[in-house]
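User: Could you check the structure of this?
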Amino acid sequence: MILNASVKGAGHKNILKTLKGLKDFTWLRAPQIKRLDDALIVTKVERRGTIVDDRMAAESLYVLLSGVARVTCRNRKGERPLVNILAPGIIPVFPPPVAGVAYALRCEAISDCQIGTIEVNRFTDICLGVKWPDFRRLALSCVGRWDLIELRCANLMSYSLMERLAITLMEMAETFGARDSQGTRLTISLRHRDLAELLGASRSRVTEFMKEFSRLGMIEGTAKGLIVKTERLEKFLSRPARAVSLPTQSSP
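Assistant: Sure, the predicted structure tokens are below.
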């Protein structure tokens, strides 16, 4: 169902309030938020539906207003593994293609989602007063293709599965975490199967390491959700490469 500015009705104020609460837009002034709210075309995408893929027109930008989404790619076996989980905010624009690699990226709804769509030129005009091609040209000049360099570095650093799991848990805590007295509580249900897909590993191996992390107090499962002890995970990752192994509980 599509809701435009003329038929948003009572939901209009709710969408405006949602935009004000998103971290991606905290730097915008009130008049800009209002213009953005007026410009958005709001749709609802049901669970497992496609929000956007890399074949769709690049003239639009998508904002996840509510719900949880994921990004998948197509591997060489024709499967679509999970590569990222998205919280409400701007759905990142798909990166320029890499020579010789066809990712077939797709953003899908994990839960029922509310999506705001806006033409990219209008979006950058509202936020920055510039047109999208100028912004994109400047962004590429400033940022370059660091995504490719990071990919090469990750491969060269030869992180173990245990280390990659620790890094992924910290990433999920940053994206979906709420701080409390016990640590950072995840606000989504994160299954071992999801972690296995993100890591390109088997679920049994992920479960094995999650149990060990729990035993050592790096994570804690509660009725309200998984608690991630980021400081302990950081300490684990800061150890010299040859010394990275699961410490005993008596370790300093």
